[in-house]
Design a protein that fits this description.
Blueprint (H helix, E strand, L loop, with lengths): L3 E4 L2 E4 L4 E7 L9 E6 L5 E7 L6 E3 L7 E6 L4 E6 L8 E7 L9 E2 L3 E6 L1
Parallel strand pairs: 2-11
Antiparallel strand pairs: 1-3, 3-8, 4-5, 4-9, 5-6, 7-8, 9-10, 9-11
Length: 119
């Protein structure tokens, strides 16, 4: 069973940057597509972006395109979400997830990390 642990959240002023990490247990991390999601207070969890198993392909939600970058280091079993030009509307709990069933659905989730952007 894969376990995911996010870190790197915190408080930042608008225009600032943060880098979130997602550390995965197990030796099969490189087999799984990874995704990042976020959930703002009172709202549903939404897709932020994803990265292919080898890191050669990424996709992003329109709201973060050009500001956020997803990467991964399979040798370190870790994924990353670099967030630049942060806005107050980026405030949310951020989750990483993995498609361990290889069926296109994210079935393993981390516990989440809070990101708060002040104006």
């Amino acid at each position: 069973q894969v376990h995911l642990v996010e870190s790197g959240g915190g408080f930042v002023q608008a225009g600032g940057s943060l880098r979130l990490s997602c550390a995965a247990s197990g030796r099969t991390f490189s087999r799984y597509r990874m995704g990042w999601f976020r959930q703002a207070p009172g709202k549903e969890r939404v897709f932020v972006g994803s990265i292919s198993t080898r890191g050669t392909g990424t996709s992003y939600a329109d709201s973060v395109k050009g500001r956020f970058t997803i990467s991964r280091d399979n040798a370190k079993n870790t994924g990353y979400l670099q967030m630049n030009s942060l806005k107050p509307e980026d405030t949310a709990v951020y989750y990483c997830a993995a498609d361990t069933s290889l069926d296109g659905r994210y079935d393993v989730w981390g516990q989440g990390t809070q990101v708060t952007v002040s104006s």
